[in-house]
Amino acid sequence: MLQEQIPDRARISSDLVEPDRVRREVYTDPGIFELEMQRIHERVWIYCGHESQIPKAGDYYTVQLGRQPMLMVRSGGGKIHVLYNRCPHRGNMMCGDRKGNAGEFFRCTYHAWTFQHDGRLRSIPMMESGYAGTRFGKDNPDCSMKRAARVENYRGFVFASLASDGPSLQEFLGASKVAFDDMCDRAPEGEVEIVPNCFRVIQHSNWKIFLENQLDALHPSVTHQSTGRAAHEVEKMIAAKAKKGAAPLSYHMLSAFATVTIDKWDNFQTLNYPHGHCILTGYMGLRPQDPDTLAYDKIMIKKYGQKRFEEIVGVNIHHVLIYPGLSVQSPLQQLRAVRPLGVDRTLTEIWHFRLKGAPEAIYRRSLAYYNLVNSPSTLVNADDLENFWKCHQGLSSDGGDWVTFGRHLGRDIEKGGMVETAPNCGTSEAPMRNQMKAWAEYMRG
Ligand code: FES
Ligand SMILES: [Fe+2]
Questions:
Q1: Measured from the CA of 91, which atom of ligand 1 is nearest?
Q2: Cα(266)–Cα(22) distance, rounded to whole angstroms?
Q3: I need a surface site. Which of 99, 278, 300, 369 has the fewest CB within 10 A?
Q4: How far is ligand 2, taken at its centre, from the CA of residue 388, in Å?
Q5: Mind listing the pLDDT tens digit for each residue in 265-319?
């Protein structure tokens, strides 16, 4: 039945995706969604979480990879495993909580089969009398919890792939690994740690609509204009009242939505890489000179020396999109993990991190921005969410068959497998074209 709903490869390659436009069914067809889960989300490297989420042996965190409920768990030796959250006996979910500590081993709540942290069967009640002479027991791998086919960690960020073949994590990430380097290098201790809670937002729209928005440099000065104006008013008010001092830096970042007018966003640049990864440069290269920043600079220079320090804070990145499941804002130490729940339901988990060894004030500043942009009371994310929902509604209608990605088409610059937008083409829809190119390649299998 399902197979009948799933379009064949020819349709995916030629009927659904053209270089500058995509059929609306790509966002709304449940059969296509099932195929995406099989061929993309349950094959490629997907972000599970940060190793600091599970610091102690037995700590676990649940995570959804494609349609699969998984567990990220730390074993006694310190190794991190990613297991299917399923008991091999009768299929009971092993951990019902989102996170916790399993103790010395997992114990199923149904019939008390127990498992090591790496998923291997440890014991079955009355195993000898119950299973003597049967195929079930310790030596049968089917009696252990199944593991993700591959697990790798880059600078503390843990990824899993449910396919045993494919590129290594570093090959897959390619240039996009700058997201993690940029985040960690900005820490005096060279690493970050999780702030142990996240915003979880369920979007009533297809997962690709969210990803396409992340590097959409045309939308901020329109969608977020009202927020930018409000923040700018606060800045002006504080400046008028206080002779010295100014509004917090986070307000300045928001007021840029209004003060950086629509034409100026063309000054930015996008870099588009294989596998659908994209980078938006610009904007975050600002170097504030307030006392908190200067105190941080001093610590960094002491640690790394002036030259290396300049290299680190000179990395000019606004956003890195790691297709198909992660959007990272490294200069502000935050990331959004995308978990598709259905063709019109998408969970995003929005995490932020602390720069190890940096002054508390630097953390407080990025926390303020994190809350301003992402909290349930934010004006910023709320405006995006409304657009996502409205896009999905429109695409579900018969009002038109295509989504177009033609902006600045033909002005992209090919550079050894990478596509760079030309100068003054920052609002190009090249990132969307790049994502759909990768999508079609994955979907063709
Ligand atoms: S279902 Fe887990 S022990 Fe029976
Ligand atoms: Fe936005």
A1: 1
A2: 24
A3: 99
A4: 10
A5: 888 899 999 999 999 987 666 678 889 999 999 999 999 999 999 999 999 898 9
